[in-house]
Amino acid sequence: MNQALVLDEFRAARALLEGHFILTSGLRSPMYLQCARVLMDPKRADRLCAALAALVRQQVGEGIDLVVSPAMGGVVVGYEMGRQLGVPAIFVERVDGQFALRRGFEIPEGARCLMVEDVVTTGLSSRECIKVIEALGGKVVAGASLVDRSDGKADIGVPLVSLLRLDVPSYSPDNLPPELAALPAVKPGSRGLK
Ligand SMILES: O=P(O)(O)OC[C@H]1O[C@H](OP(=O)(O)OP(=O)(O)O)[C@H](O)[C@@H]1O
Ligand SMILES: O=C(O)c1cc(=O)[nH]c(=O)[nH]1
Ligand SMILES: [Mg+2]
């Protein structure tokens, strides 16, 4: 599936939002990719994750034992990637701000893990997730995301396979362009929510 077709899926799902967004990194952006709206349609999730799984097979190869995702955004895409790759899918979730494995999930020692995200912007969430997987004995062979907003620049410490690579502007809050500063800021993600 080429990038234009992936973008068409986002547009059809009304997941390509314009406004003033506070990203999880604290950066501000005039554009937000709301992957939850894309993944709410099981057939669309199937199409996109089949394409992402094919890229993973091509670029990483077979031999993945386990998908591990960071909640919330990673949960649905991680589950669908597990289904496409024929392996179990588990997730880490924030406890007092730090990712932890809960709900009886386990990572077998040496398991070859694929870290699956919905969106990568700075890569911080991916790196946090990978750190937990490795601390628990897993081996992260690669990451996969529907969207890489860094256009390949984010370094997550392992190869990152993405369906859509975008170079989307983001700004520090004290350096906003006037047209962005004029709009009320919204924070769609869940990091730091009370
Ligand atoms: O590469 P980064 O700069 O870390 O940004 C990307 C992260 O931001 C979003 O999650 P968010 O923390 O907003 O929370 P959510 O997944 O719980 O919605 C998204 O799901 C990624 O996890
Ligand atoms: O960086 C983020 O927080 C982020 C950006 C984006 O476009 N979509 C998303 O879910 N999170
Ligand atoms: Mg997230």
TrEMBL record:
Its EC number is 2.4.2.10. 5-phospho-alpha-D-ribose 1-diphosphate binds at E117, D118, V119, V120, T121, T122, G123, L124, S125. Keywords: Glycosyltransferase, Magnesium, Pyrimidine biosynthesis, Transferase. One of its GO terms (molecular function) is orotate phosphoribosyltransferase activity. The keyword Glycosyltransferase applies. Belongs to the purine/pyrimidine phosphoribosyltransferase family. PyrE subfamily. NCBIfam families: pyrE_Therm. This is Orotate phosphoribosyltransferase. It comes from Zavarzinia aquatilis. The gene is pyrE.
